[in-house]
Amino acid sequence: MTDHERWWMNGELVAPSEAMLSVVDHGFTVGDGCFETTSVVRGKPFALTRHLRRLRRSLAGLLLDLPMSDAELCAAVAASLATRPDAGIVRITVTAGRGPLGSGRNEGHPTVLIALGPNRGWDAAAAVITVPWPRNERGALAGIKSTSYAENVIALARAKDAGASEAIFPNTVGNLCEGTGTNIFVELDGRLVTPPLSSGCLAGVTRELVIELTGCEEIDVPIDHLETTGEAFLTSSTRDVMPITRIDGRQLTTGPLSIGASAAFANLIAETTNP
Questions:
Q1: How far is Cα 114 from Cα 61, in angstroms, rounded to an integer?
Q2: Cα(257)–Cα(216) distance, integer angstroms
Q3: Which of 51, 147, 231, 239 is 20 to 30 A from 98 (CA-CA)?
Q4: Are 91 and 8 in contact (CB under 8 A)?
Q5: Which of 88-97, 98-107, 252-261 is predicted least confidently?
């Protein structure tokens, strides 16, 4: 953070210390909102068009209207980034705005915040654990990048206690779903596969790009396959393609599927910031 850094909030550029949220904002009281986080590449937010597309899907799923065009959002992101050229990530958060102390909403204006942060500083590879709490692939929030993140916080705390950096969820029928902030790809019979969106996983932007780059298949995989898969990797907008080297204490090697996907994604980033 620098003295000149400014975040965009509800139409104004403000110092981070002045980006104040009302104590009755529905994003604070009941987690009624959604967000997008993307990395900054060569001074620009990576794949912003795709992130804004997913933001609109999340807003629609939450029955929220955002009276800003994508062009206005892009301009707001650029204005904030101009105040901190060395930023590593951009996060766009939209909440329902001020509301009652309950689930009902007011007919008010949403809260929109564009915040900047440093690079996350991830390791080159990840150790992961599986957790017993299932994602609900039929729930109202399935596929929505909601600010209701408490179950992710709990699962990630469990992972950190086990010396891992990510926790992997099954869904309600026992199939592989996703991590707390990642999608997962695994080897199955020598080919690369990842859970379909019908599993309840988030439609990750990096996931989408890796599927396009590799021709990966989207199929349901039992969570138990993690006990035998030959290789696996995580994807996210801050981790890019991250090989998994340990699952629940079982060591894995970084194989050709992971190496190929990582190289293809690195080449994409070198070519463009808005694929």
A1: 21
A2: 10
A3: 51
A4: no
A5: 98-107
